[in-house]
């Protein structure tokens, strides 16, 4: 799968006018169940921000795209939970991830509405908390307040490192090709880390005592 991400990076590097769309969709994917645990959206956003900045794409537009995508992704996932309730957990592919649903429900039970903000920066549950929040009936006003507030620091935390990376490599005299290779190497490392995390979580599931986990099982 890493090869597909590498091809994606190469494509955006060769067609930088797609950078804004790519950043928006990657930020959105971070909050989509299952997709958010498979696609290294955060790493790709940093890499694409670096490539786009190296060819003079306005970093502030990248920031707007990342913020908008993050808000839209959480909002879409929350709406799905509101619309389909527990039934959505019975179908593929969510019925294959009861451990992630359970962890997300426990996260919400522990932190309440603050979980929406914290999940944005927390591996694994970040792709499931908005959906579970919708299923559990979290008040929309509270959810969207936390959604927007979490996106505001999350977006610059992913775009600006890429911008700074591009500036540093430019000052060092490296080429765009070397920048692309560096980003692809980072993708390989992140993909390996994600695979190890998923293996660990599959070997150490939560006890099946949470209500949504029981429904999904």
Helix residue percentage:
over 70%
Count of DSSP-assigned helices:
11
Strand fraction band?
under 5%
Structural class: mainly alpha
Parts with pLDDT < 50 across at least 5 consecutive residues: 206-210
Morphology call: elongated
Please trace the helix and strand order, writing H or E for each element: HHHHHHHHHHH
Mean pLDDT: 81
Largest pleated sheet: none
Give Rg in angstroms: 18 Å
Instruction: Count the domains.
Output: 1
Euclidean distance between termini CA atoms: 28 Å
Number of E strands: 0
Describe the protein's topology.
Elements: H1 2-14, H2 19-29, H3 35-38, H4 41-54, H5 59-84, H6 98-111, H7 114-119, H8 129-135, H9 140-172, H10 176-203, H11 211-216
Helix pairs in contact: 1-4, 1-10, 2-4, 2-5, 4-9, 4-10, 5-8, 5-9
Tell me what the structure shows.
The structure is a single chain. The chain has one domain (2-216). The chain is mainly alpha-helical. Residues 206-210 have low confidence and may be disordered. It is elongated and about 50 Å long. It has helices at 2-14, 19-29, 35-38, 41-54, 59-84, 98-111, 114-119, 129-135, 140-172, 176-203, 211-216. 75% of the residues lie in helices and 0% in strands. The chain starts with a helix and ends with a helix.
């Amino acid at each position: 799968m890493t090869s597909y991400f590498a091809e994606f990076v190469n494509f955006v590097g060769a067609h930088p006018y797609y950078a804004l769309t790519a950043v928006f969709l990657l930020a959105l994917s971070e909050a989509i169940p299952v997709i958010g645990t498979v696609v290294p959206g955060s790493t790709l956003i940093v890499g694409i921000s670096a490539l786009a900045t190296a060819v003079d794409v306005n970093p502030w537009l990248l920031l707007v795209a990342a913020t908008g995508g993050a808000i839209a992704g959480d909002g879409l996932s929350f709406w799905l939970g509101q619309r389909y309730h527990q039934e959505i957990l019975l179908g593929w592919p969510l019925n294959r991830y009861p451990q992630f649903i359970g962890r997300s429900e426990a996260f919400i039970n522990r932190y309440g509405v603050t979980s929406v903000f914290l999940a944005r920066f927390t591996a694994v549950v970040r792709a499931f908390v908005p959906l579970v929040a919708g299923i559990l009936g979290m008040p929309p006003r509270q959810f969207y307040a936390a959604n927007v507030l979490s996106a505001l620091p999350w977006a610059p935390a992913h775009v600006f490192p890429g911008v700074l990376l591009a500036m540093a490599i430019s000052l060092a005299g490296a080429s765009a090709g070397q920048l692309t290779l560096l980003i692809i190497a980072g993708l390989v490392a992140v993909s390996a880390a994600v695979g190890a995390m998923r293996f660990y979580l599959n070997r150490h599931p939560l006890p099946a005592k949470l209500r949504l986990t029981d429904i999904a099982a």
